[in-house]
Specification:
Radius of gyration: 23 Å
Mean pLDDT: 78
Number of helices: 13
Largest sheet: none
Order of helices and strands: HHHHHHHHHHHHH
Shape: globular
Structural class: mainly alpha
Number of strands: 0
Low-confidence stretches: 3-48, 151-159
Distance between the termini: 48 Å
Length: 373
């Protein structure tokens, strides 16, 4: 429900919106209509009282910190292509002595050792505990976002927990990919194929196995099939299948994400007579579009251009570097869309037009604008 989740949990912008309909899935229909009817609140999906929420988020955060420790290994080793991710074990980059397990506890070991290697006393970059802390916080926030953000009816509670746990795992995978891609692109101006291509291959498979990931977009494909094909025909039955519709949504998201940024690179090369966009960014957008859908892919690209223009000016002023890594801004845009797509869409297409239209009608000085009475 990467697509569905944002519309359902976005608050007032979802009121009156028809929930996605999957034929034969009565419990999913009940869940969708209940979410739309009740809107966001502060429910207790796991147990009752605030303690289960706190414990769930704490354990999720600890799990994320442990994953962050592995992400540090990925960030260091993937672009160097000289070591496996699993062998040799963690070691000091200066003296190359293996790091013992009690010196490899996320965040805590770095603090207790004063940010230095126990053996050679060489300083260890603060980026290691920062990535562990960042991953833990993002995982905990993703767990809250999926497990506790919207109320569920008692009828659909068991289904909702299973679906939301699945969606949290998808979020966790995407967050890990965003973190690794961002820091590698900052350091080496590349995004490894081990991240992008593996994710692009995985996205349609996940869509086929778990169509709830693309529930909203799949509902759109089903509505299109109803217009194009006669009801009851084999073609209509094929495209009305939620798994087929979810796979189509994933593939279309990959096409939109990768195709648009590739076109930007081609036109940029013609305009500036130099390489404007790396192909790693194209594959990265295929990954993001495959999991998040075509609508999110378009918004990610728009936000990335906005962030890149803003931050890129400061980076160029202070570093004089003619090349700006675009991957981190794609990651930032994807992060915003993961958690706040409904709010961003409402601001762009409802709040902002209403506000700017009010300013135009008011005219300068607060009076009525041209044509006003």
């Amino acid at each position: 429900m990467i697509d569905a989740d944002f519309g359902k949990f976005g608050g007032s912008s979802t009121q009156g919106r028809r929930p996605p309909q999957f034929p034969g899935n009565v419990r999913s229909k009940a869940l969708s209509s209940d979410l739309l009817r009740n809107g966001p609140a502060a429910p207790l999906l796991v147990g009752s009282g605030s303690m289960p929420i706190v414990l769930t988020l704490v354990w999720t955060g600890l799990f994320g910190a442990a994953i962050g420790s592995f992400l540090n290994v990925c960030i260091y080793r993937l672009p160097r292509e000289c070591m496996s991710l699993v062998w040799p074990g963690s070691r000091c980059p200066k003296c190359l002595r293996p790091i013992r397990w009690f010196d490899n506890v996320p965040i805590l070991s770095w603090v207790l050792l004063g940010g230095r290697c126990r053996a050679c006393k060489s300083p260890i970059s603060i980026r290691y505990p920062f990535i562990e802390l960042l991953t833990g916080c993002l995982f905990a926030f993703a767990a809250w976002h999926q497990l506790f953000r919207a109320p569920l009816s008692s009828v659909a509670a068991s289904l909702a927990l299973a679906d939301r746990t699945l969606l949290f795992l998808v979020y966790a995978y995407l967050l890990a990919a965003l973190i690794v891609s961002t820091f590698i692109d900052f350091d080496f101006r590349i995004i490894p194929d081990q991240i992008t291509l593996s994710g692009a291959y995985l996205a349609p498979v996940v869509a086929a196995l778990f169509p709830v990931v693309h529930a909203d977009a799949a509902a759109g494909f089903q509505a299109l099939a109803a217009r194009l094909f006669e009801n009851g025909s084999s073609a209509h039955a094929l495209f009305a299948n939620p798994r087929v519709a979810a796979v189509l949504s994933s593939l279309f998201g990959m096409l939109c994400g990768g195709g648009l940024i590739y076109a930007m690179g081609v036109f940029g090369k013609i305009l500036f007579r130099k390489e404007a966009m790396g192909f790693g960014d194209v594959k990265y957008m295929c990954l993001l579009g495959g999991f998040m859908g075509w609508k999110a892919a378009l918004l990610i690209l728009a936000l990335a251009c906005l962030f890149g223009a803003g931050f890129g000016i400061f980076i160029k002023l202070f570093t004089r570097d003619p090349y700006i890594a675009f991957g981190p801004y794609l990651s930032l845009g994807a992060l915003c869309l993961l958690f706040w797509q409904a709010e961003i869409v409402e601001f762009l297409f409802t709040t902002w037009p209403a506000w700017s239209g009010g300013l135009l009608r008011a005219g300068p000085g607060g009076g009525p604008g041209p044509g006003g009475s």
